[in-house]
Amino acid sequence: MRQKAQWSFGAGSLYYRKAGVTPIRVATLQGVDIDISFSTKDLVGERTFAEATARAAATITGKVASGRFDGRAVGQLFFNEEPTEGRIELVSEKRLAVPATTPFTVNVIGVGETFDSDLGVVDGATGGFFDRVDDAGDLVPGKYLVSGGTYTFDEDDAGKTVLVSFMRGVSGGSTTLITNQMMDIAPTFELVSADSKGMMIQLYACTFSKLTLQRKNDDFLIPNMEFGAYADDIRGVGRLSGVV
């Protein structure tokens, strides 16, 4: 006797697997969309309805929404780059005081950090923007010089409160370089999606085609990644499994 048709609930679990790297489990999964479609060709003569229909090309596309950003998935499977340890952090308007006596410098980098780049200085009292110069001889009130995370100000700005914005390298996390690769390079991975009721779909050869990072003022960042699947040279396209 046949069992009842299976029902499924929730996003389930999702894994990526690529040759030579550790499998990736997608964390805080929000949803997985998988669309399998065939095009058809109709044979139509002088009458309204087709006399025959043939199935033509097939496509498998999908979209994954995750509540957490995974640098490994983005680096290894989307950009085809191996992430490096450490991350780049943006520091916005760090409040500092220019010393009242010489040298009129402030250092924004702590132990174990590296200075990446300057993003500007604002006067903490007036909100006006300081202008950056490249030579100490050009320092006048309202201007600053930066080198290796050390900001130097004119003596007439001594004692002022300044808001310094910059980028720094810190430990923890990862960084992926986005490089200008040849067009034919596309990392291929295996996708496995399953739920607690026993329904599973496995696609042997997938490639990501789109990454969306949409920031909202009052909501969490939900990275979306779109992919397509095609036939593996040895195993075929994939398999769909369930309890019925």
Overview of this structure, please?
The protein has one helix at residues 71-78, and strands at residues 13-17, 24-25, 29-43, 52-66, 84-97, 105-107, 114-123, 131-132, 143-147, 150-153, 161-175, 189-194, 200-212, 224-230, 238-241. With 244 residues, the protein is mainly beta. The strands form three sheets. Strands 1, 2, 3, 4, 12, 13, 14 and 15 form an eight-stranded antiparallel β-sheet that branches. It is elongated and about 90 Å long. The protein starts with 12 loop residues before the first strand and ends with a strand.
Largest sheet: 8 strands, antiparallel
Shape: elongated
Strand content: over 45%
Q: What is the chains' assembly state? A: single chain
Calculate the terminal CA-CA distance, rounded to whole Å. Answer: 11 Å
Helix-strand pattern, N to C?
Answer: EEEEHEEEEEEEEEEE
The helix content, as a percent range, equals under 10%
Q: Quick check: average pLDDT? A: 94
Number of β-strand runs: 15
Task: Please give a handful of descriptors for the protein shown.
mainly beta; 49% strand; 8-stranded antiparallel β-sheet; 244 residues; 3% helix; 4-stranded mixed β-sheet
In short:
This protein is mainly beta and 244 residues long. The protein is built from 1 helix and 15 strands.
Secondary-structure map:
Blueprint: E1 13-17, E2 24-25, E3 29-43, E4 52-66, H1 71-78, E5 84-97, E6 105-107, E7 114-123, E8 131-132, E9 143-147, E10 150-153, E11 161-175, E12 189-194, E13 200-212, E14 224-230, E15 238-241
Parallel strand pairs: 8-9
Antiparallel strand pairs: 1-2, 1-12, 3-4, 4-14, 5-11, 6-10, 7-11, 9-10, 12-13, 13-14, 13-15
